[in-house]
Amino acid sequence: MNDLPLYLLDDILFRLEPKSLAIMRCTNKYFQSYISEDSDFQIGYLSLFRPSLFNLGSYGATSVCCHRLVSSLEKTANLNFSNRCYIFGSCSGLLLIYINGLFVANPFTNTFRLLDHSGSSLLPWIVGGDGSYYFPNEHEYPQGNNARTERAMCVGFAVNRTTKSFKIVCILEMETVYGFEINDGYCWRLSETTINASSKSDLTTRMKPLYLDGTLYWLRNDGSIIAFNPETEQAQFIPSIFYRESDMKLLFAADDNINRLTLLLGTKETISIYALRKNSKWILATQIKNVSMEDNIFVRWNMVAYDGKHLVVREMKDRSKGEVRLHDMEFMMKENDFKGLVHVYDMEANSWRVLGSTWCPSHYDRDFYKFTPSLFPVEEDEQTKVIVASDDQRIRYLSAVMRLIDTTK
């Protein structure tokens, strides 16, 4: 096959499903180079598959939903987990996911790696471990599902495309001092790096950290940012400030088009998008009109994802005030069930459309994670590989989540 004309080789390889293509890349040096991450072939191959949007309950979920960002086709699964599922991060085509065990998974190639999370001082506490807590101010976080899972934003997930490696970084809050706990796929350790903020302000609850240009960023309530480079283990305090009215919604995001951190502030009428400049100032980039929401059945709304190309907004509606199927009524009375509509705004087309629907009991929020397909490898070498039994129930659930990704072209 090495001697085939390139157009014929491409025609053959483009017919392969993702896992087979990933295996093909390992057959010899020629294909390793030809199907490499930055090659024209892989760029063209991956362009056939569109990004997706996972969403699941913030406090652990027994069902996971997946939308395709470029169409209204919706794939949903109610997986009936015996243990709840958590997603802690999505980066470069990999998911950091917990289903009675911590996994790094590539849903596109249907491959995964099991990690030992017991050495972390934070993760066992979030997913319902023994409840012990590392920080001196542990009395501020009493036992309880909400208190635990609200700290999920302390977990950062970074994938280095150059070194073909990933790292998990947990930020540890200690008054105005921040420490960092790191896992490189094999063990947990505390970084020698700490950083002292100039003033006390909590990390913004349930606001996920961002990974951009090799650095993880956490937003604080006062608008300042804690930055940490997982490779150099250098930390930085960014003293940015923004002003937010009490009725404004907030989203911390990254704009892939301009490669900058962005901050979205929204009301029911207008959403303003700010970009962070090098002088730590937020500059208004653009404003858009928010999606129209029906006041008579409207409950609440929030912005859940933004990448410079798409803005995703979710609104909650009280289904008891709209059309309700009769067999839903008893369940709704017990669970106070609300219906959620997911809207996506195309920044180039300047238009809104409905992406799909979700549901959520009134006491639950939902987390959204953008997933962009990649062939990034996650397998370990044979000497360090953790063997997982084929009949392990966790693998069945994990495989069901990974199958939500549409790999049809």
Amount of helix: 10-25%
Radius of gyration: 22 Å
Can you summarize the main beta sheet?
Answer: 4 strands, antiparallel
What do the pLDDT scores average to?
Answer: 82
* Beta content: 35-45%
Contiguous low-pLDDT stretches (5 residues minimum) are: 130-143, 323-336
Reading side by side through the largest sheet, how are the strands ordered? 3-2-1-24
End-to-end distance, in Å?
24 Å
Q: Specify the overall morphology.
A: globular
- Tally the beta strands: 24
InterPro entries: F-box-assoc_dom_typ1, F-box-like_dom_sf, F-box_dom, SCF_F-box_component
Domain F-box: 1-44
Protein name: F-box domain-containing protein
Pfam family, one: F-box
Explain what this protein looks like in three dimensions.
- 13% of the residues lie in helices and 39% in strands.
- It has 409 residues and is mainly beta.
- A four-stranded antiparallel beta sheet has the order 3-2-1-24, with no helix packed on it.
- β16 and β17 (260-266) form a beta hairpin.
- The relative contact order is 0.15.
- Residues 130-143 and 323-336 have low confidence and may be disordered.
- Pfam families: F-box (PF00646), FBA_1 (PF07734).
- This is F-box domain-containing protein.
- InterPro entries: F-box-assoc_dom_typ1, F-box-like_dom_sf, F-box_dom, SCF_F-box_component.
Topology (SSEs and partners):
Layout: H1 6-13, H2 18-24, H3 29-34, H4 40-46, E1 52-57, E2 64-68, E3 74-77, E4 85-91, E5 94-99, E6 102-106, E7 111-115, H5 123-126, H6 145-149, E8 155-160, E9 165-174, E10 177-183, E11 188-196, E12 210-212, E13 215-219, E14 225-228, E15 235-238, E16 249-255, E17 260-266, E18 270-276, E19 282-289, E20 298-306, E21 310-318, H7 329-335, E22 337-346, E23 351-361, E24 366-371, H8 393-402
Antiparallel strand pairs: 1-2, 1-24, 2-3, 4-5, 5-6, 6-7, 8-9, 9-10, 10-11, 12-13, 13-14, 14-15, 16-17, 17-18, 18-19, 20-21, 21-22, 22-23
